[in-house]
């Protein structure tokens, strides 16, 4: 699958998580950061997006530590929470 197709698929999945909180967290993160991702970051996000919303939220809010197959750099970046648009 080419890069554009991967990005479009990931964007859709990022914004259609099932809860508004997860949509803002994951979708906002994707929209803000994905343009600058290389192959490694894209692959790490593809792994993350397969996880449950409750787990991703817990990792991003430092309520739990992610398992070893989840990129620590990605979670550290998500923990900044500076990408969430609270004006919606």
Provide tags for this entry.
globular; 88 residues; mainly alpha; DNA polymerase, domain 1; single chain
Explain what the structure shows.
This protein is an all-alpha fold and 88 residues long. The protein has a single domain (3-78), classed as Flavinator of succinate dehydrogenase (DNA polymerase, domain 1, Orthogonal Bundle). Helix content is 59%, strand content 0%. It is built from five helices and no strands. It has helices at residues 3-15, 20-33, 39-48, 53-60, 72-78. Helix 1 (3-15) runs antiparallel to helix 2 (20-33) and helix 2 (20-33) packs across helix 4 (53-60). The longest helix is centred in the N-terminal third of the chain and has 14 residues, at 20-33. The chain is globular and about 35 Å long. The mean pLDDT is 92.
> How do the helices and strands follow one another from N- to C-terminus?
HHHHH
Largest sheet: none
What separation lies between the terminal Cα atoms?
Answer: 33 Å
What is the annotated CATH architecture? Orthogonal Bundle
Q: Which secondary-structure class do the elements indicate? A: mainly alpha
Task: Calculate Rg over CA atoms.
Answer: 12 Å
- The CATH class, by name, is Mainly Alpha
Helical residue percent band: 55-70%
% residues in beta strands: under 5%
DSSP E strands, number: 0
Low-confidence stretches: none
The CATH topology turns out to be DNA polymerase, domain 1
How would the global form be characterised?
globular
Number of helices: 5
């Amino acid at each position: 699958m080419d890069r554009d197709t991967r990005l479009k698929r990931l964007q859709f999945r990022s914004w259609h998580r099932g809860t508004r909180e997860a949509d803002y967290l994951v979708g906002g993160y994707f929209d803000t950061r994905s343009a600058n991702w290389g192959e490694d970051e894209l692959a790490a996000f593809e792994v993350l997006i397969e996880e449950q919303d409750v787990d991703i939220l817990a990792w991003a809010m430092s309520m739990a530590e992610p398992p070893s197959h989840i990129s620590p750099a990605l979670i550290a970046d998500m923990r900044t929470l500076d990408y969430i648009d609270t004006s919606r």
